[in-house]
Amino acid sequence: MFKHFTRHGLITLLASVLFSTASFGANPFITSIYTADPSAHVWADGRLYVYPSRDMDPPRGCDLMDRYHVFSTDNLVDWRDEGEILRASQVPWGRKEGGFMWAPDAAYKDGTYYYYFPHPSETRWNDTWKIGVATSKNPASDFKVQGYIEGLGGFAMIDPAVFMDDDGQAYIYFGGGSHCAGVRLKPDMTEIDGPIQPMTGLEDFHEATWVFKRNGIYYLTYADNHPRNNQMRYAISTNALGPWTYKGVYLQPTDCDTTHGSVVEFKGQWYQFYHNCNISGRGNLRSMCVDKLNFNEDGTLQMIVQTKTGVPAVGPAPAPNPNTVKYNVANATLGGGATLVDDSSAPGGKSIQNLHRDGAYFQFDNVDGGANGGRATIDIHFSAETRSKLQLFVNGEDESFLNALATGGWSDFSGDTSLTVSLKPGKTNTIKLVGDHGGVNIDTVTISPLP
Q1: What pTM does this model have?
Q2: Lowest CB count within 10 Å: 55, 243, 383, 449, which one?
């Protein structure tokens, strides 16, 4: 799922992990669905987790953003889609029309993971924002909404960011509409402790607050109001709540009108996560990227060098998933003009073609969800001359579109797109993929239960 491999000469065979020998990844590093506003954290298990927002395809401005997914990695090259952890319909106090699940963040304390998300409570969305909290004992599953933080929210109060200081004190920052604020959190991580304070000393603040600490210096990064293409700026302080000393721009505009990012240290190197719209060319269908962040001797930030190759691997590729099941395209049900063709270029000798036709689809019935059901990655192996899309339905539910990026042509089956979904127990699941959004030839489909 997680990246387009043609330019690297790689072939991905199985689903929940990518068995590459690549020394570099690619930017964007998640390509099957559109994700933005990445919040990156390294937890006690040693993995790096990214908690982004999700741009639903097709979009309607930013109104329809929903269905938060989590992604994780051991080496910054091989990424695992951990699946969906929350959607608007699961927020009891939320806007009845749904949508508006914007940039989130996460934190960990005393055995509990906390997930913070902005969401309006009324149809009149822009002045009814609240900062919701969901909790779990796992970093990427089983989150339950606990409510929202009293005293936060209101007009344009979005983009929560939680910083845990060395002494265990947590702070939450939020803001939009050119106003940034912060406040201490009580030990329960769900209540504020003291007055909300404006973050002073920032220049041209717009949104997208992030706070981290290095060598005793606090850094606050944020998006500015640069016309058409926002930039990332930063300020520093000796106190978690400021006052701040402005230092300048450190991430120039991407190809997207918005910008939003996070900074994290992983295995001895600092990294900047951000988004662009390189795949779609549209500012409301964005994709996550990562590049190195380096510091000058005085602690100031060097300008981020945005790359298409991404960052080098910082560990070996994961072992193959022994529980992956391959579904042969010859056993699929076809309809709407889709055809099964003998294809010497396809590794399996056959491929499903003509999925560009109106209503064309293929379907697998009696898909095994295992004894208990649960999260599994559906992986589609394909060839395509241009970027196309497939619409995924699981047990009748629309899981949205999956991108199928161009490979080296119809004979190049190095394409890979996937999504982690929830399956029912036993051989009771139906998986349907509908075309009519560009040409794509399908070689194999695999399903891998997550660890």
Answers
A1: 0.94
A2: 243
